Amino acid sequence: MNDNTALLGLLAETSIHAGAGQMAGVIDLPIQREAHTAWPVVFGSAVKGALRSLADEQQAGWLIPVFGPETTNASDHAGALLVSDARLLLLPVRSLTSHFKWVTCPALLKRFHADAERLGLKKDADFAVPEVDDANSALAPGDAANGLFLEEFRFHLKTADLSAVITALARLMGRDDAATALQKQLVVVHDDRFNHLAQFATPVNAHVCLDNKTKTVKPGALWYEESLPPDTVLYVGLYAQATRVKEQSKTAAEVLGHITRDLFARPYLQLGGNETVGMGWCKVTVCQGEG
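Predicted structure:
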């Protein structure tokens, strides 16, 4: 077992708004996206900030050695924990013919495979990446007798053996019934079709601000906010190093243990904004070595 790396699986239980901080087209408050793919992401700085905030709430004595000092004293020493972006793995998409589907694509699965291998956790992604022939086809583990509609697209379903993929993905979801649910709801689509769904199938909600006296909308107080839907599955890579504070010397294994064991004794993390209206809550699953 690698004692200084781990994967965190994040299953969104409420909507997530990790904002990009700038307008993109008609959406006033878009979510963070990768520049080269336009896939949704939560940047590593935001994830690390959420982890630090949780440690601060727990009044953890190891906060500064693990995460580093406050910005006013940033030159003192660096933190000992390296945190990756929270990368997308499964996107819930509305289906017009069935229950919602967890949609992924070969490019996402290949990247997850590469990330796990880089962290020395290849056994957590021990599967062959399936290939999808064309943009109008999709792979599913169950009955493929009927077609499938995802948003405005109709797909020709093909049955495929995705048991190894399901085993790896279920390990990140923190649900006892994850494998059973994926057997019914997992769909693998072409990379190009997923790119469209990732850009245009995310929820966009209108918000207004009311005048307390008149109970009418204040002039100009209407905005549109994008979010990731509940049941989105992301993953985060962690790499620990020995601390750089002589007074609180810790090995890489001890640093990682503070996160995987102490921080997530209660396995939940809040990501992004709008915490006061219940957004951003994720169920956390730790994958470390064979465990």
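Summary: The CA atoms of residues 13 and 48 lie 20 Å apart.
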